[in-house]
Design a protein that fits this description.
By secondary structure, the protein is an alpha/beta fold. It has 4 domains: 9-214, no CATH class; 233-399, P-loop containing nucleotide triphosphate hydrolases (Rossmann fold, 3-Layer(aba) Sandwich), CATH 3.40.50.300; 414-544, no CATH class; 641-742, Tetratricopeptide repeat domain (Serine Threonine Protein Phosphatase 5, Tetratricopeptide repeat). 54% of the residues lie in helices and 7% in strands. The strands form 3 sheets. The chain has a 5-stranded mixed sheet. A 4-stranded parallel sheet has the order 6-9-8-7. A hairpin with a 7-residue loop joins strand 11 and strand 12.
Length: 742
């Protein structure tokens, strides 16, 4: 069996194995086409071809069950194979839906009762076939598509008892061992032992197969492997002999650390000897089943912390020998070891760990002048995921909820975070106040700068504008210099560069260029706000962090160049495609294929392909970006929802109106939750839904969407804004359609 790369393979899941199913031996001796089961293989082949997949895989005939070694390897790897598949096709030969079947009853499908009774939901092996793949599509015995795991999530959840959030891809570790066991309780397998073996992937464990041992012994070995995995996750947590239960604190910690895939942090503050460490230990032991691993780090001082990371790296390699970066670092170079551990903790699929930083009593803070003070941020993973507990005697180590909200609002963009951080460092502004100022700046931006189409551009502009306004109040010449600077690239500037000034230049330039003191005092203000950096190599030159056009700085030079190509000349799409491809290659090489910046470039390439009419390529890009963002940021993050909305637009353009509606509804629900019902992104999707309903002939629903969008745009943007006027035109077209069709 060759394990194919992700996204080039389709797999099929069958209702049950019968005598007429094609086996590996049948394929080898050429008798497979004579069996009835071969029709299912033909179906899978045809469907995979329609979906543009390179390969397809059917478990009944792709595993040589006569080889115990191959069977053992296959069963232990099966979950990962399904997880890596681009699509899983579920062929239900006990559910009938002819191609032309329709129903006059809204929200009723004639085939649904048979779907709920399908034997597929009673088979042991199909549990992992439902949960592992990102995309699962269900087909009737006639080969007619019934829906997807997402579109049918409510009846599937009702049938199986599996929570909807798990069907949507929430980590299985979010569910307890007993809960996962319950999903399989009523399922049956042909061989007794397979009822335990079919759960290996569900619990992420491996073990040899011993057919003939019986179900009871198989489950006993499975439980031992599960316990072993959980015990290993606590191997470096200190033991405590006595602990007085503090139930209220433990409950509060659990609530705070109950993660949805994003970072969760709890700080335990108190005097020495009050029991902070014991409380952290008690929490770790009580909730060990919720985490893939628990790591204990002593952050008393730098040497102790680096030693903890060294121990942590050895343990990761022992339990995960495939951690390539860790296995290649010089173990004597502790800085490299720390970077490799942080990279491992930042992997997209590795979100269920718990880090406990004990004894953080010497934090690096403005009020702490100790040169040995530590900045815990230097020792946290880059990706905003996982759970963290910090114990400290310092009352200044705390997590401000407004700070967390601000990070989410800024979408994790490094430049936006750096600009906001510099602003906060220079003013007495609280996180809550800055968040309010940022929201005001964003709202103004919707009206004044609609050409900033991406979420990243608007985020960067909003933080930049706040800093610019404050700089202007502090030193008008600094603001003028920054405004002038925006017309140039972000290269060096020095005093002599502007000392050519003459009487024709503005007075402020002549004053700045008068002497080194005037120049340096002007520059120092910009440096304080993080908008320029001193170039220490030259000692004099200053490097600008402001961008051309002052408004739309991107995180990387190539991304800025790409936007320049696209926005400056909409007709040069071929050149734009070439630039995007170069940018994507650079991101993949420098950051990896699953980094959020890489995925943003993938999404942008999808947008370009859509403009070019290359709809199949656009869909491939969107799907890759969506899967990556869902894992990296979560299914409800605004960046994820932007891609969902893009997919809705694409499906509408392809004529796949039902799929488009599914995407729009998901995007709308997500935007309403994340941004509110009246945010412009929410209203954009509302308007898109109106257009879709219009195309589907649902004129009443279309009018409801248009009216909602119109009211929202008018309130936020005004009656003369282009978006408001666009909805009015849509309503006029709808009125004409009603006159024609009645």
């Amino acid at each position: 069996m060759r394990l194919l790369k992700r996204d080039d393979t389709g797999v099929i899941s069958l209702t049950e194995w019968g005598m007429e199913e094609v086996t590996f031996k049948d394929l080898m001796d050429g008798t497979g086409p004579n069996k009835q089961g071969y029709d299912k293989i033909r179906f899978c082949s045809a469907q995979a071809e329609r979906d543009g997949l390179d390969h397809f895989w059917v478990d009944t005939c792709c595993i040589d069950k006569s080889s115990s070694a191959e069977l053992t390897e296959a069963i232990n790897s099966m979950f990962q194979w399904y997880y890596n598949a681009a699509k899983c096709y579920v062929y239900l030969d006990d559910v009938s839906k002819p191609a032309l079947e329709t129903s006059n009853k809204p929200n009723y499908q004639p085939w649904e009762p048979d779907f709920r009774r399908s034997k597929w939901f009673t088979r042991g092996w199909t549990l992992q076939e439902l949960l592992a793949p990102a995309s699962v599509e269900f087909f009737s015995k006639e080969g007619v598509r019934l829906g997807t795991k997402r579109s049918l999530e409510l009846p599937i959840s009702d049938i199986t008892g599996i929570p909807v959030k798990v069907l949507r891809g929430s980590p299985l570790l979010d569910c307890s061992v007993p809960e996962r066991m319950a999903w399989a309780e009523s399922r049956q397998t042909t061989r007794d032992e397979d009822k335990a073996y079919s759960l290996l992937g569900i619990f992420d464990v491996q073990m040899p197969l011993i057919y003939g041992e019986g179900r009871e012994k198989a489950f006993k070995r499975l439980q031992e492997e599960i316990d072993k995995a959980l015990k290993g996750s606590l191997s470096n947590v200190p033991e405590i002999e006595h602990f007085v239960a503090r139930e209220r604190e433990l409950v509060e910690m659990r609530e705070a650390l109950n993660s949805d895939g994003s970072r969760r942090v709890v700080v335990l503050y108190g005097l020495g000897g009050i029991g902070k460490t014991q409380l952290a230990i008690a929490y770790a032991k009580r909730h060990k089943g919720s985490y893939s691993a628990v790591f204990w780090l002593n952050i008393k001082d730098e040497n102790s912390l680096k030693h903890s990371f060294s121990i942590m790296a050895k343990r990761i390699l022992r339990e995960h020998p495939s951690a390539i970066r860790l296995s290649s670092v010089d173990t004597e170079n502790l800085d490299e070891v720390i970077d490799a551990v942080k990279a491992w903790l930042s992997l997209p699929n590795n979100t269920r760990w718990l880090l406990i930083y004990d004894n953080y009593d010497n934090p690096k803070l403005p009020s702490n002048k100790d040169p040995a003070a530590l900045d815990i941020g230097d020792f946290l993973p880059e990706s905003y995921q996982g759970s963290v507990i910090v114990t400290t005697r310092s009352s200044q180590v705390k997590i401000d909820p407004d700070a967390v909200s601000l990070v989410r609002k800024l979408d994790g963009l490094p430049l936006a975070l750096a600009t906001a951080g510099a602003y906060l460092n220079q003013t007495s502004t609280s996180f809550g106040t800055y968040l309010r100022l940022y929201e005001d700046s964003w709202t103004r931006l919707q009206t004044t700068s609609p050409e900033l189409s991406s979420y990243a551009d608007r985020t960067l502009y909003s933080t930049w504008q706040l800093s610019f306004e404050h700089i202007k109040r502090r030193n008008e010449y600094s603001a003028e210099l920054l405004r002038l600077w925006a017309y140039f690239d972000n290269q060096d500037i020095w005093l002599e560069l502007i000392q050519h000034s003459d009487s024709k230049d503005p007075a402020w330039i002549r004053e700045i260029a008068e002497d080194e003191i005037s120049f340096n005092s002007t520059i120092r203000v910009l440096s304080d706000y993080g908008l320029v950096e001193a170039n220490t190599a030259s000692g004099e030159q200053i490097e600008s962090r402001g961008d051309q056009g002052k408004l739309k700085e991107a995180e990387e030079m190539y991304q800025r160049a790409l936007r320049g190509v696209l926005y400056s000349d909409q007709g040069k799409l071929k050149e734009a495609e070439e630039m995007y491809q170069r940018a994507l290659q650079g991101c993949e090489k420098a950051l990896g294929p699953d980094h959020t910046s890489t995925l943003t470039t993938v999404n942008n390439l999808g947008l370009l392909y859509n403009k070019q009419g290359k709809l199949k390529k656009a869909e491939e890009m969107y799907q890759r970006a969506l899967q990556g963002k869902e894992k990296a940021l979560g299914p409800d993050h605004t960046s994820t929802l932007d891609i969902v909305d893009n997919l809705g637009i694409l499906y509408k353009d392809q004529g796949k109106l039902n799929e488009a509606e599914e995407m729009y509804q998901r995007a709308l629900q997500g935007y309403e939750k994340a941004l509110g019902p009246d945010h412009t992104s929410t209203l954009d999707t509302v308007n898109n839904l109106g257009l879709l309903y219009n195309n589907k002939g649902k004129l009443k629903e279309a009018e409801e969407m248009y009216q909602r969008a119109l009211q929202g745009y008018t309130a936020i943007l005004g009656s003369n804004h282009q978006k408001t006027l666009g909805v009015l035109r849509n309503l006029q077209s709808l009125s004409q359609a009603k006159d024609i069709f009645g």
